[in-house]
Every structure is written in C-alpha cells, then in structure tokens.
Design the sequence.
C-alpha cells in the first residue's frame, strides 16, 4: 500500500466537501459537507500517523470529538435560524451585504 | 543559599493565596483579607531572608570561589559532586544545567577536560563546540578573556539561576522554553520592594476598602498582582518576562476598574489596557528580535552575555532596544504613551500606591535594567551624549513635572509626579547610571507609596474626595500623622538633604556626567542634565503647592474630617521613615574631605549591581559637591517660590497671570489639556479611524468599487452598442455582440462579489487558497 | 470482517503481497468518491444523509486498512451512531422537504466545480511530488506496541492518557462548553 493512495482519496473527499459547502443552500447540507472535509483530514492524520507515531490517531479521535461538538452547535444554530425565519436557506442570510 | 534557589516559593505562595481567597474568602470572618495579609507577610519575611542569603552569597563569592562552588544546588547532583572536588573557576557555577546555553558551553568545556565525564553529549546541540576548542580559545576572545579574568578571583556576583523545562519548541525541540528563577541583586532587591509595599498596602486596605461590596475580590486581585509581579521580577527567560508583564497588566486593568459601575472607572481601565497593548507590540517584536539575535535562546543570561561580549550585531541590538523602549513607554508611563497613568487613578488609592507608583509601573525600568547590555551596546550609551532612552526619559521628567502643577486632584498631581520620576529613572538608565536608576526606583517606591497612601488617608477623612483645591485645606491640625508623613515624603521627593530622594536624584544628575567637575560618568549628557534640573525644580514646586492646598489655609470641604485609624497611619509612618533613611544605603565613597568606611558606603551598589560577563562594564560617577549644592538650591528655590506665592501672598505679578498675559494663558491651556495628547488619541486618531476613514472606506466601497464594477459592465455595453451602431454590422456583428455580452456578464459577475452571501466568499476563499498554494507548490519546486 | 481486514493489512505490511488489500482499498475508495459526490449533488436531503453514512463507513474501512481499529470503531459509533442521527433530526426539525426538491443548490455550481478541481489538482500535485512511491511501513507503531504488549489499543490508550492527557482533558471541557452552548442556542424561551 502506498501512502499516496490514502492522501489522494482524502484530497478528493476534501474537494467534494468544499464543493458542497459552496453549492448547497440548505444549512443542514452545508454541515454534512463540512463533515466530509473533517473526515478527509482524519484519513490524512491516520495515514501520517503510520510514519510519526500514535499521536496522529489520538488527534483523529480528537477531531471526531470536536466534529461531534461542531455538529451539535451547528445544528442548534440552524434550528435557531429556522425558528426565526422559517427557512434554513443559507442564501437568504445576506446581512453581510455591503 | 537554599533561599536563593527556592525563591519560586514567593510567587507560588501569593498565587495560592489568590486561589484560597477566591474559593473561601467570602466565608471567612474577615472576608478573605486575612489570607492575603498573612501570605504577603510571609512573603516579606522570606524576601528579607533571601536578601540576607544574597548578601552572604556576594561576600562568600568575593572571598573565595571554592566555597560558592561547594554550595551549588541543581538537579544534576553528579555535576554538583564534580564541582565539589576541584576549585572550579567557571564564573557561573550557580547556573543550573540547561538554563543557559552560553554558560553550559563554558562549563562543559571544563568538566570534560578535567573530570572526563560524558556530560557534554547531551548539551552541545548544533553549536558543537568541542571541549578542546573551547578551552584553547576559539570561543569568542572576549569570553575567554573575561573568564580567565574571573578565574583569578576577581569580584564577581554570580546570579543563581534555576529552571525547569516548560515545553520544547521547534523541530526536535531545538529550543526549549524554560521557566525558572534568576536571582541576583537586582531581583532580590525588587522582591524586597514588592513585598514590603504590598504588605503595607494590604494592611492599609483592610481599613480603606472596608465594607466595599467587592472586598474579597479586591484582596484576591491584590494577591494575584503580587504573585505576578514577583513572577516577573524573578524571570529567567524572556518568555517568562512577557507572561509576567501581561499578568501584571491584567491585574492592573482589573483593579483600576474595581468600581466599574461608574463609567469613567471602566473607561480608565480600558484605556490603561489598550495603551499598554500598543507598547506590548514593541515588547513582542523586541523579544523576538533578541531571541533570534541570541542564536535562538530565550534565556536572559544568554542574551545578556552575548550582547555584552559583542556577539550580536549592533544593528540588531539597536532595533531590539528601540522596540523595547516602546514597551517601556507604555508600561512605565513615558511620553507619549503616558496618558493612561493619570487616568488609572480611578482605581482605589492603595492600588495606585502599589501598582501605579511603586511596582508595576517600574516594570519597564526593571526590564531595561534586566536586559541592560542590550541597551548599553545597542544605544551606545558609553561615550555618547544623546540617545533615545535618555531623550524619552528626560522629556518625560520635565514635561510630567509641568503637568503636575495645574492639577486640582491630589492623586493626579501624584500621578504626574510618578510619570516625571519614572522619567528620571529612564534617563538614568539612558545615561548609563544603572545603579542610580535602581536606587531611585527603590527610594521612589518608598516615598511615593507614602504620598499616595497619605492622599488616600486624606480622602478617607474628606468624604472620598480627591479634589484638594475645593475639598481640602487646613488638614495640618486635624490629621497630624498624615501631615508629617506627607511632609517627610514630599521632602524626599523634592530631594531635600538628607532625605532619601536627595541621594538618589543626585546620583542620577551626577550620572549624566555633564556638570562641571563630573568624574567617572559614562558619557556627557548636557541636555539631559538641564532637563532633569528643570524637572527637579518643578517637582519641588508642585509638591509645595499640593501641600498648601491640602494642609494649610481653611478647610474648604464639608463635614468634620478626622485622623485615620492605625491601620492607615502605621503604614504611612513606616513608609515615611523608610523614605527618610534609605538614602543612606548608598552613601558615596567620599564627600569632599569626608570619606566613609567601607562598611558604610555604596552598600546598595555592591548589593544590587551585577559584576560579570552578563553585565556591561559601566562606570560610576563620583559624588560632586557643587552639583549636590546646585540641585539642593534648585529644590530650595522650587519650594521657596510657591511658599512666597501661597503662604506669604507674595509674587503679586504672578497672580492671575494667565488672565492678563496671552502667552501664560496659552501655556496654562496647553497644560490643563495635558498637551492635547488625549485629544490627539481619541479625537484625532480614533475619531479619524471611526469617522472619516470608515466613511471614506464606505464611500469608496459604494461609489468607486461599485462604480468601477458597474461601469465596466455598462461601459462595455455602451461601447458595444456604439460599435454596433456605427461599424458595419454585417462584418463584426457577432464579435461585437459577444464582446458586449461578455463584458456585461463580467460586470454582473464582479458585481456579485459584494453579495453578502457567505458561500460566495467561501468559494473565493477556497479558490484563492488553491491558487496561492499552487504558486507555492510550483515555486518550492 | 474487522479481523479479516486487519489481518490483510498486517500481511500487506509484512510481505510484498498486498494486492488483496489494494483491491479492497480501490473498491472502497471508488465507492466513497461516488457516495460523496451523491452527498453534494442529490436533490433529496434524506438521501444525502444516507449517502453520507456510506462515505463515513468507507472512511472507517480506510482506518481499518491503516491498522487503526480503535479509531475505526469510534468512527462508526460516533459518526454513524450519533452524528448522522443528529443530522436526520436536524432535517426533520427544520421541516426540510422529505422528497425531491429543486432548490437545494444555488447557482454557483460551475465556480464550485472549478474550485474543487483546482484544489484536487494542487493537493494531488503536491502530494505526488512529495511522497512519490513511499510505502506504508507502520514502523512508528512498533515501538509503542512492543511497550504495550503487542496490543494496539493499549498502545493508543498509553498515548492518550500519557503525553496527550492535557489536550484530552481540555477536549472534555470543550465538549461540555459545546453541549451547554447547543442547549442555550436551541432552547425556546
């Protein structure tokens, strides 16, 4: 097995995640795409940990835990947005418009 | 010796006290103040013992180096054992292994040569100096020379350094950040200053803030502040210094804003905090420069040795010292970043005495003194007649004294006085009078703390007002203890013989080396001398004015003032007596025909001033009788003029001068407005950023950028139309249409750049990142 | 299955005989990429969540191939067991359309596709040039494993509760903070 095959898989997953983050209008779907990104990073961490010791695996575990926290808070925010505007359309959130 | 290697107990004790007060303070009968007082009292006792140990340490060093070597403590007991067997000429055998690379190298060379144990392997990293090379002198010649010199038993005062690894940094831990204590005369004397002032302030506060709604919180922060200050003072590495520096800043912020319910107080706290951030940038940059300049070492000892021995280029040292001066300007209230210090008087008075007069504000002075080789070499202090440090200090000393003259609030007078006196210390450092600066720091801490506590005592009596012009007056008879202590401290501040301020100020003036007949100074700083003399005159004058308003005339406030209780007056008496006598600690060697025996003169200098590789060779100005008489006369004049004006009603031409003379009016307006610094900062700079600049950016955004984007589109469409209408349609029809629509679409796309849609920003962000990463990847290959 | 895969992976490192593992990898990888693309393109939200399960399971299999069983199991428990369920709850609570919906994507598909391809290309280029034909050796595991009596999970536990203890504890504080934050955000008041 080559190191590269894992890294490349991770790169593709990452890019797909980025695509999803950019394209999706539904807040929940954006969060799902972020999960894709986080998972691709985890693959990288584990692949490199075979070279640099178990710290990588520990870090992957940390990322999983942080992702759980992120989804919790993220969904709470989405829920709040839904409650306030009856929609989770990210496009409608354009208060930043100058 | 045990106390010198275990000084970490002091800050740890105060930190423990902080935690205990926070956890249990509210439930205790005295709301937690007893914990703080007991802890700081123990600290004070320990600092006294430490000072005693240090005194023994110096004397044993001076007599016999073998003896000191035998007492070395360290984790490496084997190393200590090696030391025991042979008299080791290494100058730094009290430095624990791993705390200083430079010292380790020297030590390694000798160990491996003489004892042949394998300690060298884990010490020499990339520097790879083999023992033979080191001993035979391929090491920098200066190092060899001074080491040899010290080996012959010259008087050196060795710092006792202990450290523990904090965390490794860099690839394979090439740099280890250490945390530890560096104990030498300078830190031992600061331990004493901090703990004694803190003790007295604690005692004073139990009465002064009695019944306050955040009494427990107040004492907790006093403890935390004391801990942080001790931590800062004992710093072994520059990182540790930065941490301590910020910690005292946070405590200062919290204590200035102690009564945050009132807007001015929380504003003052914020102002102090933000102004200090400006200087902190300088601190960070300066420390980073030093880290790289000293071959990636954070150890203060390493940096000092390398700077003193000329291993760091002059340009780097100049850059580092200029950056650090910015830090000094903010923390020690030097022009032009001094504006926070007078506002900081919004905090409780004991806090002003402890933090904003005696300890925290001298952190900047301490920093310069700690890294003195950097400044001494970087600014070429020796043999020069002007440098940035001296200019900053002298300007502050002079202009600060002027400002104090127009204040109505007695605490503001004292605050500007502190600014001015800190200017004296900075000037002293700038002209090379290191010991004079430290000595003035010492005496100033005593008498200025006394003055602040005295002002607090008066406000305690006069319904918490600090307005001496409107609410004080005639307190001489009502508050005799406060009066007398205030008078003594004022005399010391004004530099009246034989109070302490006279000695320390005179040393600074002599240190400028420009008065007729000056000997032994490092340079000739004529301008500084003139400015300092003017500052000294101003000091005497504004203090006399303050005394008139506070203690003489008729009582102008309301109610019945009364003398404060013993918990307030005893600290006053202690500080006033110290302020009166500590000047004798550093008597000059001889005053004209009278020469003092060795056990009396320059004790402070011997105690505090380091001698050795990590300190530049500075010379000391000798006592100059004409200069002393002159400065005394200046101070006397400074007392006399206000005396005639206020007491005797004399000097009639000066009365209401500002109403008759345009020039005087302008001068007074400028002073009342504090040279317009606050106006400059808030109205001009902040106002500009908040108002016109933000509006301009908005306008630019709305008009120029949008106009360009829209204009590109519209212009292209128009061009397209124009071309379409005027050029043969059949030939270029398609091309023109394509150009028009493309441009229009480009305009449309570009216009969407400002959509406010996060996902578009994300798309741009990722695209830009990918492109940038691509550039890097290609460039790297 | 876990045992078989781990065994295969171990064989792959010990011998040059690693074709079966590679076959498993490429099948899984192709399926993952397909599933991931479905996650971001499907027009049915519930289907997206279900495809996400596939990707996450595939990631777990990858962890197994990399001899990280504990992380793989955690992945299954936390992601498949908890996070995806959370997503489904999120979908229901926001009354998302359960069937097909046409308005799930915005109009930036071309830009996003370009960005995605660009990112893949840059990363792939950098990775291939840096690591070339480096083979997975798993040599970094041998030391800690020998110390832990040849048990990978024990070795991992030693790592977490040894050098990484403080980050671990900090993480638990973070989780608590996130929990409280989520409650505060989501509660009706």
Sequence:
């Amino acid at each position: 097995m080559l190191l590269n095959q894992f890294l490349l898989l991770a790169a593709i997953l990452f890019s797909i995640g980025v695509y999803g983050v950019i394209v999706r209008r539904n807040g929940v779907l954006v969060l799902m795409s972020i999960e894709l990104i986080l998972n691709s990073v985890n693959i990288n961490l584990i692949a490199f940990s075979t070279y640099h010791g178990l710290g990588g695996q520990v870090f992957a575990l940390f990322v999983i835990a942080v992702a759980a926290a992120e989804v919790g808070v993220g969904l709470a925010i989405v829920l709040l947005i839904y409650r306030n505007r009856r929609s989770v359309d990210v496009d409608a959130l354009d208060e930043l418009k100058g | 010796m045990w106390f010198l290697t275990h000084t970490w107990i002091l800050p740890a004790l105060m930190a423990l006290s902080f935690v205990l007060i926070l956890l249990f303070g509210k439930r205790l009968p005295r709301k937690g103040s007893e914990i703080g007082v007991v802890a700081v009292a123990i600290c004070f006792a320990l600092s006294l013992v430490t000072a005693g140990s240090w005194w023994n340490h110096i004397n044993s060093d001076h007599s016999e180096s073998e003896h000191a070597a035998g007492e070395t403590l360290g984790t490496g007991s084997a190393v200590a054992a090696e030391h025991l067997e042979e008299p080791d000429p290494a100058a730094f055998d009290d430095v624990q292994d791993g705390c200083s690379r430079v010292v380790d190298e020297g030590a390694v060379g000798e160990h491996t040569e003489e004892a042949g144990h394998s300690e060298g392997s884990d010490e020499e990293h990339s520097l790879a100096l083999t023992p033979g090379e080191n001993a035979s002198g391929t090491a920098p010649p200066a190092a060899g020379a001074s080491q040899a010199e010290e080996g012959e038993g010259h008087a050196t005062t060795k710092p006792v350094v202990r450290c523990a690894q904090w965390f490794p940094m860099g690839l394979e831990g090439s740099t280890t950040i250490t945390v530890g204590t560096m104990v030498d005369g300078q830190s031992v004397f600061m331990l004493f200053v901090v703990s004694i002032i803190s003790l007295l302030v604690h005692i004073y506060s139990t009465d002064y803030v009695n019944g306050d709604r955040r009494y427990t919180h107040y004492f907790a922060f006093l403890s935390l502040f004391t801990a942080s200050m001790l931590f800062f003072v004992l710093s072994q590495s520059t990182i540790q210094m930065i941490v301590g520096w910020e910690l005292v800043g946070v405590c200062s912020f919290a204590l200035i804003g102690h009564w945050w319910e009132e807007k001015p107080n929380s504003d003052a706290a914020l102002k102090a905090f933000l102004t200090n951030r400006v200087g902190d940038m300088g601190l960070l940059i300066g420390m980073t420069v030093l880290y790289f300049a000293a071959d990636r070492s954070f150890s203060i000892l390493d940096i000092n040795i390398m700077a003193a021995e000329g291993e760091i280029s002059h340009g780097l040292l100049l850059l580092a010292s200029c950056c650090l001066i910015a830090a000094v300007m903010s923390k020690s209230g030097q022009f032009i970043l001094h504006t926070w210090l007078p506002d900081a008087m919004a905090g409780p008075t004991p806090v002003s005495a402890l933090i904003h007069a005696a300890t925290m504000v001298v952190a900047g002075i301490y920093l310069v003194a700690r890294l003195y080789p950097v400044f001494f070499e970087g600014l070429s202090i020796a043999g020069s007649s002007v440098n940035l440090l001296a200019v900053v200090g002298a300007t502050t000393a002079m202009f600060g004294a002027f400002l104090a003259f127009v204040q109505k609030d007695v605490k503001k007078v004292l605050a500007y006085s502190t600014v001015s006196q800190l200017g004296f210390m900075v000037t002293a450092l700038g002209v090379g009078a290191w010991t004079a600066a430290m000595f003035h720091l010492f005496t100033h801490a005593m008498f200025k703390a006394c003055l602040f506590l005295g002002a607090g005592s008066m406000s305690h009596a006069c319904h918490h007002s600090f307005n001496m012009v409107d609410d004080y007056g005639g307190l001489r008879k009502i508050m005799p203890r406060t009066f007398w202590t205030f008078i003594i401290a004022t005399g010391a501040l004004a530099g009246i013989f034989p109070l302490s301020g006279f000695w320390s100020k005179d040393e600074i003036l002599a240190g400028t080396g420009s008065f007729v007949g000056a000997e032994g100074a490092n340079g000739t700083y004529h301008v500084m001398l003139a400015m300092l003399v003017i500052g000294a005159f101003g000091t005497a004058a504004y203090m006399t004015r303050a005394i008139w308003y506070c203690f003489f005339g008729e009582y102008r406030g309301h109610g019945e003032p009364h003398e404060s209780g013993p918990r307030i007056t005893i600290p006053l008496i202690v500080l006033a007596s110290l302020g009166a006598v500590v000047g004798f600690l550093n008597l000059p060697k001889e005053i004209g025909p009278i020469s003092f025996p060795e056990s009396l003169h320059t004790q402070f200098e011997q105690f505090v001033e380091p001698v050795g590789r990590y300190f530049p060779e500075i010379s000391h100005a000798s006592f100059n009788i004409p200069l002393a008489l002159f400065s005394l006369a200046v101070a006397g004049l400074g007392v006399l003029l206000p005396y005639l004006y206020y007491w005797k009603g004399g000097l009639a031409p000066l009365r209401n001068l500002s109403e008759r003379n345009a020039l005087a009016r302008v001068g007074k307006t400028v002073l009342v407005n504090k040279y317009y610094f606050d106006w400059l900062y808030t109205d001009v700079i902040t106002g500009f950023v908040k108002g016109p600049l933000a509006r301009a950016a908005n306008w630019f955004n709305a008009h120029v950028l949008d106009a360009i984007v829209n204009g590109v589109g519209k212009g292209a469409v128009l061009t397209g139309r124009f071309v379409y209408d005027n050029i043969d349609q059949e030939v270029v029809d398609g091309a023109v249409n394509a150009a028009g629509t493309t441009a229009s679409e480009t305009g449309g796309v570009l216009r969407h750049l400002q959509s406010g849609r996060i996902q578009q920003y994300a798309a741009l962000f990722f695209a830009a990142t990918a492109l940038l990463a691509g550039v890097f990847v290609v460039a790297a290959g | 299955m876990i045992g078989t895969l781990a065994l295969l992976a171990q064989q792959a490192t010990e011998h040059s005989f690693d074709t079966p593992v590679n076959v498993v990898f490429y099948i899984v990888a192709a399926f993952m990429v397909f599933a991931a693309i479905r996650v971001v393109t499907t027009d049915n939200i519930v289907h997206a969540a279900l495809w996400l399960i596939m990707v996450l399971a595939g990631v777990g299999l990858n962890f197994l191939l990399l001899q990280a069983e504990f992380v793989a199991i955690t992945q299954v428990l936390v992601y498949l067991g908890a996070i995806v369920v959370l997503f489904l709850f999120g979908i229901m609570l926001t009354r998302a359309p359960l069937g097909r919906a046409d308005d799930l994507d915005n109009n930036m598909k071309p830009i996003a596709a370009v960005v995605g391809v660009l990112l893949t290309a840059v990363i792939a280029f950098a990775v291939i040039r840096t690591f070339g034909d480096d083979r997975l050796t798993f040599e970094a595991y041998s030391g800690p494993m020998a110390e832990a009596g040849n048990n990978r999970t024990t070795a991992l536990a030693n790592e977490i509760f040894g050098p990484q203890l403080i980050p671990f504890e900090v993480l638990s504080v973070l989780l608590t903070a996130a929990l409280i934050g989520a409650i505060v955000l989501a509660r009706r008041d």
